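Cross-posting from the modeling subforum.

Setting up a comparison between two proteins and wanted a second pair of eyes on the formatting. Protein 1 (sequence, then structure tokens):
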Amino acid sequence: MIKVGTNNLGSDPTLVLKNLTVEAEGKTILRNINLKVKSGERVVLFGPNGSGKSTLFKVIMGLDDYKIKKGDIEVDGKSLKKRSIDERVKLGLGYVGQKSVGIKGVTVENLMDQYDFEYENIKKTIDQLNIDELLKRDINYTLSGGEVKRVELFTLSLLDNIHTYLLDELDSGVDLENIGRIAKYLNEVSKEKSIVITTHSGAILKELKVDTAYVILNGEIICKGKPEKVWDCINKQGYEKCLNCEIAEK
């Protein structure tokens, strides 16, 4: 048995998926998903394109027209099935997706004006993500992939109630320098937040400390174990090997 460590910030699960089965257009796309994310835990979801990683995040957030056929999603013991996106955010879930919408004519500074805080209180985050020069630019408009990810992480940080970050393909389209910068920021944030990330390339794992890895294949979680061991197995033998994985936590 592989024992998966946590950073000891709490033992009660923050986010729990129970036997979650989901359909879209009459087709089952997620099957019997069981996953627990403890307070302060850092989780990575591996899986090839089309395996269900992004779909899982969208279902958790209540995005798109997915139908839960069985099971439940809970945050701190509260079911999300009948809750709106806004309610899910108020319960502490924050989401950064793969694709971002540009907003012409609205800057990050405009967004910041909606919140009651002193600039000095958020300067550390601005410096960590190196986005000072991006504050006056239109949100996600004509920005590079790395700039978009950094800006979205910053805007997420403005919501004090968020305790669980769902970060989809955070290292996709981001250069190595900014992957390192983002990972360093998340390592700091994870002292207070739970983090669930997906990655296709695994690049961010060279810098980001992660506690637990899951593998999703064909809409099912088929493996759980230590991130470095699971990723090494995937790199050497591919995802199909995960179907008969010998290193998974039993």
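Protein 2 (same layout):
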Amino acid sequence: MEYLNAFEQSKMEKLIFSQDNIAVTKAQPADVLEIYHIACSVGQNKKVATKGFLMDNYASDPKFYQTKLLQNIFELKYFYVARSKSHNKIIGFLMANTKEEWLKNNEGWIDEVYWSPRFDLGNTDNFVFVDKTAVYAPFTGRGIGSILFSTLLDDAKKEGVSDVLAETIIGPEPNFASLSFRIKQNYKVAGMRYETYKGKNLTTLVYHKEI
């Protein structure tokens, strides 16, 4: 089922791409179903490299993924939603981890990365890790991700965080939309990592950006 019907999408497109019409707030428990629908729109079995994607197939197990998203809302310091003010609909979200949050669930991650010789490992002393950014599929590529990311940078900087890290999959399915976003936001390639996830061998580029 579509999160928005064709009529709602048509009406929203006329207003949505003004920054004044987008409100970014911290995710709340009441937002979980809307967040889940956004995740389903870009997290499917079929990966569309040019549109961007999430690795998991969220529609495959609604109860599991909704519970997992709700847990993230309660536990993560940086979990944002972008909402259309004119339609009061969530159209995107960004989930980021503090260093402590990321390493709690990804122990040994720093040692798993093949860091570039040009990368200063001191930049891993105090970072936020951008785990997931998702925009409702019909509205991708319209700057909503940039608005979410800008809010994260502002908040992290106020907390004294100096660096942002993120990963983008380049194999077996390259996420070209994510790669383009990293370039747009002036990330620099910091390293590479290999991972086996749900039976797939993944290759990811690790990106870094100073705040």
